[in-house]
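The passage that follows is intended for readers who have already worked through the single-chain material. We present the inputs for a multi-component assembly, then the predicted structure in tokenized form, and finally a short commentary. You are encouraged to pause after the input and sketch how you expect the pieces to fit together before reading on.
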Amino acid sequence: MRRMLAAALLATTLGIPPVSAQPRPAQEEFVPVTDAETEQLPAAPLVMSAYAVAWLLIFMYLWSLGRRLSRVERELDELGQRGTPKGR
Amino acid sequence: MRALFLPTILLAAVMFVAAPWLIDGAPTESTMGFVQKIFYFHVPSWMVMFSAVFLCGIAGAIHLFKRSAAADRVAAASAEIAAVFGIIGLITGPLWARKAWGVWWQWDARLTSALILELILIAYLLLRRYGGPGSEKLASGVALFGMANVPFVYWSVNVWRTVHPKTTVVPSLGPGMRGTFWWCSLAFVLLGGALLAARLRIERLRARVDELYLER
Amino acid sequence: MRAFVGIAWLVMRKDLTVEVRSREIVYTTLFFAVSCVLVFAFSFVRDGRALDHAAAGILWIAIAFAGTLALGRAFERERQSETLRALLLAPVDRPAIYVGKLLGLLALLAGVELILVPVVGLLFQAPLLAHPYLLAALLAAGTIGFASVGTLFAAMLVRSRSRDVLLPVVLYPITVPVIIAGVRGTAALFQAEADTPMAVAWITMLAAFDAVFLTLALWTFDPVMTE
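Having made your guess, compare it with the prediction:
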């Protein structure tokens, strides 16, 4: 029964039909520039903020991981000292 | 496994430090100009996020059908990784869009699907945290549905013509951009892997703590 | 196979019998759905006229909210009488129980929508009768998509803490694509010049969603409900 369902799932996901397109064109590839242009909205602050945000989030997550890791290691040490550890 | 952690994260750190120079050196894109450089962080973030979501879904399925506690730990850890890198993608994207499209957000297929995927992940994490005992199984079910959503996100740009650049962009990158892009992608993948390993270690230690509490 | 269908039918009949006697869920859900429509209508009506495409959006929001309530109530009833455990202990194919509950919920939602859709049509002058079969197909496909995921999650969460708030939290992100398809398709049909190819495209997409979600739900119902 389950194998039938698995096959059905595979078949339906692969067979999702394409839908008719909407009129706005998308870029097919990135084209490098030959001569520089001036723009109205300055791009530099946006790019800097994007990188800053990425760095910040990564560091915040690393810090959170470090904190949780030390907390759980401390708990493990306490338990190891207080209880009778069944060796593994 | 643990021996690999330090070199991996060091390598990732070195690559990240070198990245700004490489990104600066890459040729500027003609239509979008300087702001396109966000691409070198934006796309690798999403790559890590999607990989983590797949990992979470598969691990969840293994936990659900084979009752594997280790698989459940992998699912929990990778869901968090996916959520973090997803937020990075969701913030860098609009910052790029503000310049490239003139608006912070568009309700087109890809953006909407990516946002939905992030919401599913956060729902998964909330369920694990507040669902009470036995919520790991339920979360695995949610993860499976989330994983079924990932191909839809990827196809949505190719199936509907939208403002968001198509997936043909990456294979067609020119030589200057290609090297930088793959450098940043590798850096992100290494970082993602190292963070996943660290998060997994926390899960394993927590499981050990629970065991010790039960033994007493 | 015949046993499977038989069990599903039994479960559905049981649910509908209980419901017909008390009519609690159908009345409260229906009233809630209509109130939802009114509240949203007040937000989106200006100078006596509703915003364009407001009708489609409001209809599907009402279906989603009312559906979530109905799901919660239906399984709360099971939890109170401990009948869910009894059902799970029965020596039957577990997915058959899922299908039975799903069919019961679909019957309930069909009844609600039968009244809700004309109400929305009346309040927003929506051309319901222009393409009735397409509209019915759209509503059916969308409701099945929503209900298939909802029944699974509601059953899963029956024994969880914070189940009342967790059901919408996990259900809405996963069924948002279904709602999107439903709204876009309905909006295409409610236009002055109905865009029928678009509506058909969305119905096809919904059918694909339904197939995927139903298959996944049937596959995971048993392991997820096991303790």
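Commentary: Residues 17-24 of chain A have pLDDT under 50 and may be disordered. The interface with chain C takes residues 1-2, 5-6, 8-9, 12-13, 15-17, 19-20 of chain A (CB under 8 Å). How closely did your sketch match?
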